[in-house]
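Closing statement on the pyridoxal-5'-phosphate sub-project.
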Amino acid sequence: MFTYFDHNATTPLEPRVLDAMLPFLREQYGNASSRHDMGITARRAIDAAREQVAALVNVRPQQVVFTSGGTEANNLFIKGAAEILKPAQVAVSAIEHPCVARPAEALARRGWSVRKLAVTGEGVVNLADVDAALQVRTGIVSVMLANNETGVIQPVAAVAERARAAKAWMHTDAVQALGKIPVDFEALGVQAMTVSAHKIYGPKGSGALILDKRIELAPLLSGGGHEFGMRSGTENVAAIVGFGVAAEIAAERMDKLASRLEGLRARLEAGLTQLGAVIFGAKAARVPNTSYFAFEGIDGETLIIELDKMGFGVAAGAACSSTNPEPSATLTAMGVVPEIARGAVRFSLGVANTASDVDAFLVALNSVVQRFRGLTAMVA
Ligand code: PLP
């Protein structure tokens, strides 16, 4: 048996999502641009999905630009805005996912100055640093809504207000917040927002950039003018349909799921505290499913390998950069010393997890921690 606690990396496909997708992979293979019956069926399915995704984030359907996922949507915003705006400062938080951080850093080669916004020890973007940063003429600001490692929720509305006053375009990467907490584009006051299907029990390779229609971006891909000219290429109908249904399911079950998972996390963290773990960002507001912790002196990589052998899937640091041996950039920005950061383990709950899964995990973790503590004591 394998118990999966890595839902911030990806989630399983919801059966209703798969059922909705299958006809578009089998008999309904029409191109949504075709004028005949099969094309019209595909077009209508995309339109319905656009409405479902729009409803989840409180926008009009025309504001949803479907992409191949969160990575593409983040690149589309940063690169597409930089193409239109005059070079100025680009300000992104120090804890952004690499698919925001790297394109922002790359703007340095095109005459932009790159500013990383500081976070507190709890992993929350520091508004005083945002104010300081915005003293310089700024074109683009990007701050994620929830961090993928800590789960800490960021003050995006407050940053957006400041960005607006400074006449900068504000973007938020809401990939890790969607389906976990309410995400309201209008209430956040941003110009652009990134979402991804596979973090909400939808298919991989499907996401969207949500746009305020008053801003103009240059597309990354030009061609047939699909997706309001923002993303050419024949639409991946099945993946878009899957995203739509996943968005609808997320809206239906979010409140109940969030409170259940929050309860499971509290159960986990009570156990972690007893075992002497450090829990990162625990005092900040977090998405309910995520816990990020470390045991001093025990390497995170070692912990995940041992836990994997015992049938539990968790992540060390950020899953998306797990080939990178450097301590997590998020923890470094939070001021966590490398000796502790190297121990970081990310535990992220999902819809199938139960209290007995959490209890079994704690038993396994306890045995691994005691074994490694014994070893370090012997070496010392
Ligand atoms: N943004 C955040 C915060 C993420 O956690 C991830 C995925 O791990 C992405 C963006 C990338 O999304 P996708 O996998 O759909 O490209």
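Residues 69-71, 97, 99, 144, 148, 173, 175-176, 196, 198, 207, 320 surround pyridoxal-5'-phosphate (CB under 6 Å). With this model delivered, the sub-project is considered complete and its resources will be redirected to Aim 3.
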